[in-house]
Amino acid sequence: MIILNKRSLSSCPHKSQINQPPILESHKQVKKLFKFQKYKQIIFNCERLLRSHPENALIYYYLGLAHLSLREYTTAIANWTKAIKLNSQYDLAYNQRGQTYAILGKYFFAFSDLTAAIKINPKCSEAYFYRALLHHSQKNYELAYADYENAIFLDPYNKIARSNKSIVNRILTQQALS
After folding, report:
1. Number of folded domains that form the chain
2. Most buried by CB count within 10 Å: which residue of 65, 71, 82, 93?
3. pTM here?
4. Contact 65, 1 (CB under 8 A)
């Protein structure tokens, strides 16, 4: 998504050329706005872009991130749902929506989305990590251990996953001894 102001849109000779915005430029602009915590500006810009590009899943994804940052969880989920409807292979949207469902205590939906993210992208370490946290919280230690292992394999610098894997390993060892 390209975040444009009024001047940028009016000076653009062919608005239809923006249909597939350059991802690299989009990320730079969104990161800049996120860095300065300009969530309402992100929402404003994305909603304006949606008027001319309602089929752009990336815009809905960024809207979801901005609403999540404002703790508007239901709206964030709704935007990721729209992104997924436009692109059923959008692993990042499934991942974010799953994490947000977990925040709301909707664990069935959280597991479902995190598992979908993993099926779409088996290298999504974050989905393994958050699914491991869910398994861990529900005392499904063997499943938590397996997901922590996958998360660590994919992201060796995830210190929390390493620590939690050790804790789960101790619990499994104690269970085996008793």
Report:
1. 1
2. 93
3. 0.82
4. no
